[in-house]
Amino acid sequence: MSNLTNALLVGLPTKAKLFSKNPKSRPHYHILVEAENQQFDIAVNIASEDPKTADVRVLYAIKRNITPPQVDVLLSLKNGMFELPDHGVTGIDFVRDHLVAKDEMKPLPLFNRSQPIEEQGSEEIKNLIDEVVADPNAVLYAFGHRYDQSSGKNPAWGFEPDDGIHNIHMNQGNYTGNHDKENGRGEDGALFLHFPSTNTWHAVYIAFQTQSFDNDSNGYPKDDSKQGSRNNVSQGHGHHHHHGSH
Questions:
Q1: pTM for the whole thing?
Q2: Distance between CA atoms of residues 154 and 39, nearest Å
């Protein structure tokens, strides 16, 4: 288990846009969600950073017409933020739940610093999110980590108090020294989109090429040679907010 807060946000998506506090770094796709008279922000990776090595491309898969894990429990939930486990909902696990395999995924587009932010990222993911925003009855189920509410105002949307969810991607299989504090089984992030008018579900899955799909009970790669010393590894990776995440 990681020391992060495994969470599920359920709500009505009202707006979505690409946003980055720093125009020189890749944006996340931010989705504004209304839930129980409160606003929340979802930050989703939809572009890959400029590669210094060949394996940093972020991978994704969209699966249409699926049935998500624990579908009956999901449908019984009111809108809101749930810190898991709660209401019988446990976290999801790409590997254990057979949600997606690495060979089903393809790389996200590279972030291009010379192009406007709104032209970045996966058109396929953006179009799917736009479908949900346009449907007044569609509900978004976002699994990930709740980010700490230390800043008063949400940078992407300006609402207060800031609250939301990030790490909407696989949160296991990170090797020691590379985001391994996010490792945990049953803590993966994903988007499930429900269209009640047709009773269809679609899913967005994201993972990093550097992540392993063959992991131990703590979410560490079974072939991680540094596992024994991992508790001594100091990391320069801060969790104060979601914009620098992965």
A1: 0.89
A2: 10
